[in-house]
Amino acid sequence: MSVTKVETRQSLLDAARRIVAAKGYAAVGINEILAAAGVPKGSFYHYFGSKDAFGEAMLKSYFDDYFATMDGIVADKGKSSAEHLMRYWQKFYDTQAVDDCQGGCLVVKLGAEVADLSEVMRVATKVGTAAIVDRLEQMIADGVADGSVSVDDSPRATAEALYSLWLGASIMAKIHRSPDHLDRATTVTRQVLHI
To answer: What pTM was computed for the model?
Structure first.
């Protein structure tokens, strides 16, 4: 793919991410995405084979950026693992507390929707969330090793439970349009990690 083709494809993915985060997947038409990206109508299928293939690519792009953020947090060698974990959760909090708690996490916005609509998007979400939990598990294991964290269960089970807690808290924050559930998730997270 040429540089301009790659840039145009990424522009479509970036535009879609913003629009889909606000409206959901089914409510967004291809023409709306093309207009937001400044790409001529009729050229969508030049970049993607189908709307499902496009949705899968959008999710993969989202997760790649998400992983880069997580990896950047861990790369700060001047901090303990407990500080890395709390920095990650604070970033999660900040992302979900914006826009009257409407947030910007595509997993929160699309998880249930795409699980029923598109198998390829469901699988992309499953793979992406598993990779998030993998990173959280490693952060927790590192915290146990450096003594900045202690957990009552395995690092894996703890990572899965905390990620589920935060997804649920994000949904409740959206419903109530209040960060109260995110505040409680922060408190529970500190209790679970003993920090």
So the answer is: 0.90
